[in-house]
Design goal:
Blueprint: E1 15-20, H1 23-31, H2 33-36, E2 41-44, E3 54-57, H3 59-62, H4 72-78, E4 83-85, H5 89-104, E5 110-114, E6 117-121, H6 131-146, E7 150-155, H7 158-165, E8 173-175, H8 181-184, H9 198-206, H10 212-216, H11 220-227, H12 229-238, E9 255-266, H13 269-289, E10 292-302, E11 308-319, H14 322-336, E12 343-355, H15 365-368, H16 371-388, E13 393-395, H17 396-399, E14 405-407, E15 411-412, E16 415-416
Parallel strand pairs: 2-4, 7-8
Antiparallel strand pairs: 1-6, 1-7, 2-3, 5-6, 9-12, 10-11, 10-12, 13-14, 15-16
Subcellular location: Cytoplasm
Protein name: DNA polymerase IV
InterPro entries: DNA/RNA_pol_sf, DNA_pol_Y-fam_lit_finger_sf, DNA_pol_Y-fam_little_finger, DNA_polymerase-Y, DNApol_IV, Rev_trsase/Diguanyl_cyclase, UmuC
């Protein structure tokens, strides 16, 4: 609920729950929008024989009565023009890894609970903005980079974050606090509380407890006598209390990336390079902020007809500098795309990340003398931006020339920086 945009707790945790909307159908739409965009679709088994059940359906199909778990035959009766799609779990896994890598760039505290859902603990991620700002950035990036819709819940714990993400679909952002429980949820049936199944709900009804509000004020001894230790949890959950931590998923591959949807389709080589330079600069700044270095560089290209390709290259020596990432990104673009067609979106991502302090940089002889100067330059540039904002430093390449550094007249720790037009050491070719 964006009206709570001033949400930022003075203390305690901040949890996001990211829930991809109609994930399987949305993946197929992202892959082939000309076939599926805006149409009622369903992913189901035994499509050719019209047998099996509906695994998931698009929102267009849901409006016509098609539901998950429904027999395909029944779904076709509800919606005769329903487009049935055979599942492609390898494709879903690729998109799942992609959206979780985007989420991972905001915090390493990520717990994947299924192929299309994850929790994020963003308590320590205030450098990216307030919780609503982070949620909006995350939602927008997932849409722009993958063309997938998602809903996000913001809350002080996992239970409420999960319930918040269900409040507004598709593409909603909702906030749910403990103090919101009486007004928003206490009049709802107990079965609407996440974690309470049909059998438990039926047992509560047998006890005369029909709503979440009644459960919240129920006698705890009576609940534990009926449900054991779960009885205490039921009462706490009805009051919005949940202490379970976000359990870090160690298998999520680290990635830092940024994409931009261009205001107009571009094809000119100089325009492409200017965008690549901006993207490389942004991802490397985020990389250095997290004290990481990257071994692999990946670019993303999307055409006006929504076709998307990705190409990557692993480096012999990991890097953290924008000029190296920029050169490799341009090389990948020229090799795999060149002047073939206009593009509407470009992206640069850094993968195979590792902590800088733990990495042994195998610098070759050519780069050995220049590496300390590059690191010093990066440190000065980052400090300038931290203090004076992102616009404190631009490169001439961003303005249409070459990637030399343009700096305003500031001093950092006694290091005098001349006026606009100075080329800092380490940037000369």
């Amino acid at each position: 609920m964006r009206q709570h945009a001033n949400y930022y707790p003075a203390k305690g945790r901040v949890i996001l729950h990211v829930d991809m909307n109609a994930f399987y159908c949305s993946v197929h739409t992202a892959e082939e929008p000309e076939k599926y965009q805006g149409k009622p679709t369903a992913v189901a088994g035994s499509v050719e024989l019209r047998k099996g059940i509906v695994v998931t359906s698009s929102y267009e199909a849901r409006k016509r009565g098609v539901k998950t778990g429904m027999l395909v035959r029944e779904a076709l009766q509800k919606c005769p023009n329903l487009i049935l799609i055979s599942p492609d779990f390898y494709l879903y896994k690729q998109y799942s890894m992609a959206f979780m890598n985007i989420a991972y760039s905001y915090t390493p505290m990520l717990q994947a609970t299924s192929i299309d859902e994850c929790y994020l603990d963003i308590t320590g991620s205030s450098q990216f903005g307030t919780p609503p700002q982070i949620a909006e950035q995350l939602q927008q990036r997932i849409w722009e980079e993958l063309h997938l819709p998602c809903s996000i819940g913001i809350a002080p714990n996992k239970l409420l974050a999960k319930m918040a993400s269900d409040m507004k679909k598709p593409k909603g952002i909702s906030i749910l606090r403990i103090r919101d429980m009486p007004k928003l949820l206490w009049d709802k049936p107990c079965g609407q509380l996440f974690g309470i199944g049909g059998k438990t709900s039926a047992k509560l009804v047998d006890m005369g407890i029909r709503t979440i509000g009644q459960l919240a004020v129920a006698d705890e001894a009576r609940l534990t006598a009926r449900f054991g230790v779960m009885g205490s949890w039921l009462k706490q959950a009805a009051n919005g209390i949940d202490h379970s931590p976000v359990e870090i998923d160690r298998e999520v591959s680290k990635s830092i990336g940024h994409t931009t949807t261009l205001p107009a389709d571009i094809q000119d080589r100089d325009d492409i390079r200017r965008v690549m330079l901006n993207l490389s600069d942004q991802v490397c700044r985020r990389l250095r902020r997290q004290k990481l270095i990257a071994q692999t560089i990946q670019i993303t290209i999307r055409t006006p007809d929504m076709k998307t390709i990705t190409r990557s290259k692993s480096l012999a020596v990991p890097t953290e500098t924008a000029d190296e990432v920029y050169r490799e990104a341009c090389t990948l673009y020229d090799r795999h795309w060149g002047d073939r067609a206009p593009v509407r979106l470009l992206g640069v991502a850094l993968q195979n990340l590792q902590p800088k302090e733990e990495a042994a940089l195998q610098m070759d002889l050519f780069d050995y003398n220049r590496q300390p100067v590059k690191e010093q330059l990066n440190e000065v540039m980052d400090k300038l931006r931290d203090k004076f904002g992102e616009s404190a430093i631009l490169t001439a390449g961003m303005l249409g020339n070459d990637p030399s550094v343009l700096i305003r007249n500031h001093k950092i720790r006694g290091t005098s920086l001349q006026k606009d037009g100075m080329i800092l050491p380490g940037m000369e070719e």
